[in-house]
Design brief:
The chain is an alpha/beta fold. Helices cover 39% and strands 14% of the residues. Helix 7 links the parallel strand 4 and strand 5. The two termini are 22 Å apart. The structure holds pyridoxal-5'-phosphate.
């Protein structure tokens, strides 16, 4: 049996550290705010090479708060890729702006400048660059479009902890960046958690205030904010896990390289392409085949779990029917029925990757 995700195995491998972290938070009653949150924020800022890190309640809130902090005129258009988890787009609407879907690069599945340029209007005020599947977007090209058109660049790093663009960590390259620590993400909490990183002092302060009722000190509310805090327990757990993340990521990359090498050259199987400038952290390893459903069943019947990310491109969801238009030619709309995520993660040994490769090869030889 090869699982898609095995959080129980991960816990077993670092049990004393996690148990101690939880016990410390309870002993210190440091449930909200306090030293464990501060410590994690510092550690994660360092990890992302960003100046500021502000913990929030989850990755969706992180997006909403980042967009709100940008202070755009109501009803601004914000460009987002048509292939992502719904949160990337949902946050735009929640902040009173308009979702505009743009097409993506066919190798890396990420938003590119060409896709953005084709959707620009004078109302476009920001773009959400999703580093999908752990592959960074071409940020220099996106930053250039943003500069030309006076737009804000928000990185959605929910799938890309530790990914690098031209040797620099994602999370420090846009105006604002958002992270999710949902349990199944590359760095996951034991519940919901998220963070925002930024280089900008004023944005950092604004983000911190929005997430904590519009205040810096206890009852000095300067505007109406909300409650979206990273809690102490999650922060302590994340701090216990963070020192292991590089090793876990290295295993993901090793498995991905193995898949890329040994699944090459199969008819009707398209592999993801990692750009020369990218350090991809492979939150997901996504292949494409017109025999996707059959292959998924075959793997399942042989004890190998797989996933589909995402089965319905965002513009085709009922939630976006109100936009009134689906671009049938867009890459994400043409390919969503062919995507398959093979198992990948630190819970797998290289022999497990070899087993997956053998099964996939066996399937396509029939
Ligand atoms: C998981 C995810 C989110 C949302 O994060 P939550 O912590 O679940 O709210 C946002 N964007 C992307 C791309 C994601 O994968």
């Amino acid at each position: 049996m090869i699982k898609f995700l095995d959080l129980a195995a991960q816990y077993e491998s670092i049990k004393p550290e996690i148990d101690a972290a939880i016990a410390n938070v309870i002993r210190d009653s440091a449930f909200i705010g306090g030293k464990y949150v501060k410590e994690f924020e510092q550690q994660f800022a360092e990890f992302t090479q960003a100046k500021h890190c502000i913990g929030v309640a989850n990755g969706t809130d992180a997006l909403e708060i980042a967009i709100e902090a940008a202070g755009l005129p109501a009803g601004s258009e914000i460009i987002v890729p048509g292939n992502s988890f719904i949160a990337s787009a949902e946050a735009i609407t929640r902040c009173g702006h308009k979702v505009v879907f743009a097409d993506v690069d066919e190798d890396s599945y990420t938003l590119n400048a060409e896709g953005v340029r084709s959707k620009l209007t004078e109302r476009t005020k920001a773009i959400i660059a999703v580093h999908l599947y752990g592959h960074p977007c071409d940020l220099d090209a996106l930053a250039e479009v943003c500069k030309e058109h006076d737009m804000i660049l928000i990185e959605d790093c929910a799938q890309a902890h530790g990914a690098e663009y031209k040797g620099r960590r994602v999370g420090s390259l846009g105006n604002l960046a958002t992270f999710s620590f949902y349990p199944g993400k590359n760095l996951g909490a034991y519940g919901d958690a998220g963070a925002i990183t930024t280089e900008d002092d004023a944005l950092a302060t604004r983000v911190r205030m929005i997430a904590n009722h519009g205040r810096i000190s206890k009852y000095d509310h300067q505007f109406e904010g909300r409650n979206s805090r990273l809690d102490g327990m999650q922060a302590a757990i994340l701090s216990a896990k963070l020192p292991h993340l590089e090793e876990w990521t290295a295993r993901r990359i090793e498995i991905a390289d193995y898949y890329l090498r040994y699944l090459a050259g199969i008819d009707n199987l398209i592999l993801p392409v990692r750009k020369a400038w990218a350090r991809q952290v492979y939150h997901l390893f996504v292949i494409r085949s017109t025999r996707r459903d059959e292959l998924k069943d075959y793997l399942g019947a042989h004890g190998v779990e797989s996933g589909v990310h995402y089965p319905i491109a965002l513009p085709k969801l009922l939630a976006y029917a109100y936009l009134g238009e689906v671009d049938q030619q867009a890459f994400y709309n043409r390919t969503d029925s062919t995507l398959l995520s093979l198992p990948i993660g630190e819970h797998m040994e290289m022999k497990d990757a070899a087993h997956v490769v053998n099964l996939v090869r066996e399937f396509f030889s029939q």
